[in-house]
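Section handout 9: paired folding examples.
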Amino acid sequence: MPSDRLRRGLLTRLLRKLPYDWRMISGIAYKPSDSAFEKYIAGGIHDYVKAQPQRMKGVVGLWIAHSKALEDIQDRDGITVVLEDDFVCQPDFFECALRMLDDFDRSFDVIMFDCQGSGPIEPHRIAPNIYQSDGLSYPAYWGSHCLFVNNASIPKILAAKTNTMVKDLDGFHLQRDTGLDVYLFYTGKCRQLFFGSHAATGWHLLEITTNLIKWLAWTQGSFKRAKQQVPFDDRS
């Protein structure tokens, strides 16, 4: 959200250090009465989302904002990285991620990097640090903070979203019946950190302060791998 100076400032500071072109896409405050949003929720909204009014605004808003970000991409060659505003990474994350991608020998629509949760699960492993969830999402796999999108697949992804009931974005990418080829890559070098919610009331100052310290440690590369909750098989 443009009004969130903290998250916007942190993400801008991180992106300015990278040798890539980037741009911000405004977040969406979903309003059921706004007809401009209708095409993005044509498939309906999952009952579990409707049952949580405080979360519904955020879940549907992220769903629409992600679609708008994909619509903004005109190039159909290469990949685009879509980041949420609570993304943080170590300095060598993108170098590691691109090396993994260069070594990957399968076609893909979306790659989700460093999902949090109780996973990864060994039967889902298809290569070192690479998994396919077989339809399983939360609580084993959650977090859509870093998506590598195959630009050629953008029309396919948008069509799948139009024909799918709105749900948490990570759950959408991991469900079986979308026709999308989605993989989970683990580097141990990126994650999301909570800096408050636009959809829920209440700000947890202690947690935000703690995560700000973690953000600084991550971006300086001083966060110890041993403290992370994901396995990592060193490929070097």
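Moving on to protein 2 of 2.
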Amino acid sequence: MNGNPKDNEKNMDRKSNLKDYTSIFKEIIKEANKIIDDNKYNSVEFYGIILCYLNYYDYDNFSNILEELSTKKTKDLYEILLIIQ
């Protein structure tokens, strides 16, 4: 995850059609806590996948989720950052 979205271009070959799922990811994010609780998902893995997608396809929401996690789920965010390092 790079601070500059332009740098992400050189890190990965992106599939342009994956950007089509941005609206679905936004809906998932709105219901994240309920989805995690109802399905007994590991929140670190759940948000890790969300952040990976958003980092490449919706950087504005990536920043918002990162900020939200840093204030509400700091421990989870640190664990995600350790895993993706």
